[in-house]
Specification:
elongated; 9 helices; 7-stranded mixed sheet; 9 strands; 259 residues; 32% helix; alpha/beta; 19% strand
C-alpha cells in the first residue's frame, strides 16, 4: 500500500514512534467505564495498531481525509462499519454510540480547541479522552487559577473533567515534524452531572471574564450584573484568572440572586 501524504490544510503530522504510540494507548483506563473507543484522525494507523489489539473495548476510527480512509480500509478490512469517513466536528455521536465511550487521537493542532468544545458539548457521553495536543494547548487545559495559561478552556474542562498532563513529545517523532512541542493529556469525567448554578449563565460569565482578562470582573461583566446590588462583591474586584471553578459557580449564583 502506498503511504498517505500528510496534508497541511488538515493539520496532519503523523506520529512515527511506536513506543510513544503504545504509551498513548496504554493511557486509556476503561476499567468497566466504557467498552467503545473512538480514534480521531488515525492517519496511517500507528495508534490503531495498538488499539485493535485490545479486547476490553471495541475501536472505531474516524478520519475526514479520504486518502487515509481508503488506506485504512485496505489495512483493516475487519473494521467495516467501524471505519468512518467523516468530519469529527460534525459527527452525531448518538448515531454510533448508545453508551458512554472514550476518545483518543493525535489530534490536528489547527482544530484542537474545537475538538475539546465538541467533547464538552457531549460530556454526558464522553467519559475519557486521551490525546496529543500542541504543548501550549495542553498547558492551557491543565492550568490552575492564577497562572497566565489559565483561561476559558481550563475552567470549562476542569468543571466537568479531571485533567492530567501526562508527558511531553518532541517534534522529531512526527512526519512532517511540527514547529512546536507536543504533549499528551488525559481527561476523565468527574462526578459533576450538572453544576450547582445556572449553567448557561456560568458559561457566559466565564467567557465574558476571560474575553477581557485584563479588566476586573466588575468591568468585564458589566452587561451581566446588577452593579448597584453587587457594589460590595469582592470577587468582582479580581480578574478572571484569579477565580477557580468553584469561585465561578459561586459568583454565578450571586449574579442570579441579585438580578
Amino acid at each position: 500500500m502506498s503511504l498517505v501524504r500528510a496534508k497541511k490544510h488538515l493539520g496532519q503530522h503523523f506520529l512515527t514512534d511506536k513506543n510513544i504510540a503504545s504509551k498513548i494507548v496504554e493511557s486509556l483506563r476503561p476499567a468497566g467505564k466504557y467498552t467503545q473507543v473512538l480514534e480521531v484522525g488515525p492517519g496511517m494507523g500507528i495508534l490503531s495498531d495498538f488499539l485493535l489489539q485490545k479486547t476490553d473495548y471495541q475501536t472505531y476510527l474516524i478520519d475526514i481525509d479520504t486518502e487515509s480512509y481508503l488506506f485504512l480500509q485496505k489495512k483493516y478490512p475487519q473494521l467495516q462499519q467501524r471505519l468512518i469517513n467523516a468530519d469529527f466536528l460534525e459527527m452525531d455521536f448518538n448515531s454510533v454510540f448508545k453508551e458512554p465511550f472514550a476518545i483518543i487521537g493525535n489530534f490536528p493542532y489547527n482544530i484542537s480547541s474545537q475538538i475539546l468544545f465538541k467533547v464538552l458539548e457531549n460530556r454526558q457521553q464522553v467519559v475519557e479522552v486521551v490525546g496529543m495536543f500542541q504543548k501550549e494547548v495542553a498547558e492551557r487545559c491543565t492550568a490552575k487559577a492564577g497562572s497566565k495559561e489559565y483561561g476559558i478552556l481550563s475552567v470549562f474542562l476542569q468543571a466537568y473533567y479531571k485533567v492530567e498532563y501526562l508527558f511531553t513529545v518532541k517534534a522529531g517523532v512526527f512526519n512532517p515534524p511540527p514547529k512546536v512541542l507536543s504533549a499528551v493529556i488525559r481527561l476523565t469525567r468527574n462526578e459533576v452531572d450538572q453544576l450547582n448554578c445556572d449553567e448557561k449563565l456560568f458559561w457566559q460569565v466565564v467567557k465574558a471574564g476571560f474575553n477581557q482578562r485584563r479588566k476586573t470582573l466588575r468591568n468585564a461583566l458589566s452587561s451581566l450584573i446588577n452593579k448597584e446590588a453587587m457594589a460590595n462583591e469582592p470577587m468582582l474586584d479580581l480578574r478572571a484568572e484569579r477565580l477557580t471553578v468553584a469561585n465561578f459557580v459561586e459568583l454565578t449564583n450571586k449574579i442570579t440572586a441579585n438580578r
